Amino acid sequence: MEGKNTQSGYLLGRSSWESCRLNLQHYLFKEDFGYLLHPSVNTTEKSLIADVGCGTAIWPIQLAKTLPPSVEIHGFDIDLKQAPPPQWLPDNLKLDTLDALAEIPEHLRGKYDVVHLRLFVFVVENDDPMPLIRNMMTMLKPGGYLQWEEYDREGSILKTAIAGQSVQCMVAAMMFPTTLSAASRSQKLSAGWPSRLGQHLQEGGLQLVADEKKVVPDEYLAYQQDVNMVSLEEVSRGWAEEDVARFGDIFQAAEKERANARKGIAFTLRRRLCVAKKPM
Ligand SMILES: C[S@@+](CC[C@H](N)C(=O)[O-])C[C@H]1O[C@@H](n2cnc3c(N)ncnc32)[C@H](O)[C@@H]1O
Q: Which InterPro entries is this protein grouped with (predicted)?
């Protein structure tokens, strides 16, 4: 499948379309939270910061612009296909490959003042983020900060701009992981762990410093739903043939329904940001 990362089992693609989706999503996160690093995360002129699963590298690129050039930033991903070439990166940003779920190499252990993660919801296995939390703890210095952002589906509702608007097709589209055959269904799609993120971090031995939840405001709901629709389409590329035959047109039907509603149908996903500190 074009742009699909079959080797690592990553559910999303690597096409330009998917990179645009990640970058729009980044701006929506930044707009809603109002910062890249939470104010409780203390940095100095000598801080060493890692962004793990950096995707297009837009977060570390923008962070580099807000911090002194002496701060070093390292972006890691299992696959750097979506990131710009090294020649176009800020001088204090270096990118490298890393499998965040495998054993962390010796030279990255206990090294970072800050580790950042965002949107691992389709990556974490068995609804259990603890192996990832343990690895991120390993990368942190004692007293270092882990900042992590995810979508938290708890309390999400399907919202319509016009009362009584038909939403049948959108409900089918958003429900699809539970309707697919086992061959297509991934346990990563129905993950509930982001709703318990703060608790997981504490269970992992970190001290929770901040736990923020932001509901997408009405003026950005249509853009957020654009992001949601593209991510569903991306995931559907990995479907089994029988599911394509049965459900192949649910996204087109949902888009048509949304167009009829002048884009006034959207899921009210909540953004969640946790900051946790590794004990000294
Ligand atoms: C949904 S994207 C989010 C990208 C970026 N953090 C952002 O917020 O824009 C998830 C990223 O995690 C990366 N990823 C998947 N599995 C990984 C692993 N085992 N180790 C490191 N990165 C991984 C993917 O390649 C992808 O770039």
A: SAM-dependent_MTases_sf (IPR029063)
CA 11 vs CA 166, 187, 213: distances in Å: 30, 11, 25
Over residues 193-210, the pLDDT tens digits come to 999 999 999 999 999 999
Q: Backbone phi, then psi, for 84, in 5-degree steps?
A: -65, 165
Residue type, position 92, single letter: N
Domains, in order of start, for the chain: 16-277 (3.40.50.150)
For ligand 1, the distance from its centroid to the CA atom of residue 45, given in whole angstroms, is: 27
Nearest C-alpha to atom 11 of ligand 1 is from which residue? Answer: 53
pLDDT tens digit sequence for 66-92: 999 999 999 999 999 999 999 999 999
Ligand 1 in reach of 118 Cβ (< 6 A):
yes
* Beta-bridge partner residues of 64: none
Q: Which residues of 71-83 are buried (b: 16+ CB within 10 A; e: fewer)?
A: bbbbbbbbebebb
- Chain centroid, CA 257 distance in Å: 27
Q: For the residues 23-28, what does the mean pLDDT come to?
A: 98
Determine the Cα–Cα distance for residues 171 and 189; give it in Å rounded to an integer: 16
> Element (H or E) spanning 142, and its range?
strand 140-152
Q: How far is the CA of 74 from the centre of ligand 1 (A)?
A: 14
Ligand 1 mean position to 54 CA, how many Å? 6
Phi, psi of 156 (to 5 degrees): -65, 140
**What count of other Cβ atoms lies within 10 Å of the Cβ of residue 161?**
14
